[in-house]
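User: Can you model how 2'-monophosphoadenosine-5'-diphosphate sits in this protein?
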Amino acid sequence: MTDKYAVIGNPVSHSKSPLIHKMFAEQTGQDISYEKIESPLDGFADTTAQLRGDGYKGCNVTVPFKFEAFQLCKQLTGRARAAQAVNTLRFENGEILGDNTDGAGLIADIEQNLGCKLLFKKVLLMGAGGAAHGVIWQLFNAGASIVIVNRTLDKAQLMASEFTSYGTVFASSYEGLAGKQFDVVVNATSSSLSNKLAPLPKGVFAPGSLAYDMMYGKQTPFIKFAREQGAAIASDGLGMLVEQAAEAFYKWRGVRPDTAPVLAKLRLQ
Ligand code: ATR
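Assistant: Here's the modeled complex, given as structure tokens:
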């Protein structure tokens, strides 16, 4: 019997997740279906309850429901607890297990696909919202030291204080970055969504550095700026999207798909 999965979001029509999971299923011979479900903004818990009632085995959760999904779960993985956000639900024996595969997806793309090991690297994490919270624990786990920069400095300071026990972390304003250089700069702001660039000073990219935009789209203003400023590698977040999906697929099915051909196909679209 085909096992049913879905991604819940609002809006969700743009989601590439069904296509990615279809490719994973074909590649691994897993008998699953995967669809997009747009939940009313005030109806996430009901939508989830309905899926469980209809026998779905799990779902992915995207904007704006990741925090609500976190609150819904009694059982959480450590990385979901650290992120205070959930992007993967598994329905099992009447329970909901919440996980967050975004950080693992980012690390896999940076380290395996882009070949940049994070151990002892100085990372600038831009943004202090949900997306930044979703990945910071895994950045520490990979051995990076982190500066969180945010337009609203208070939020960066609060976030840094939440994570001091995990590793070396400081907060900064954008002006405070003048004269500083980083090995890896991760854009976890939503600025690329509105085609804007956060006010990064020139010179933040160390020689040989990697610039990573968690949004996907080849020419975001951040990627353009990073290239102009001499970053050695500037990547969008398409690889992270595929890798976080692979991690969710593994969580559900116990089989790890090969992400390279899937990413290559998406790049051609
Ligand atoms: P998400 O869940 O995508 O992280 P969010 O929680 O609303 O969304 O957080 C958005 C983040 O992007 C915030 O860190 C925000 O900065 P502020 O806290 O100062 O608002 C950041 N952001 C959005 N647009 C930005 C811009 N044009 N320049 C710099 N930072 C921006």
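A couple of observations from the model: The mean pLDDT is 96. The longest helix spans residues 238-253.
User: Helpful, thanks.
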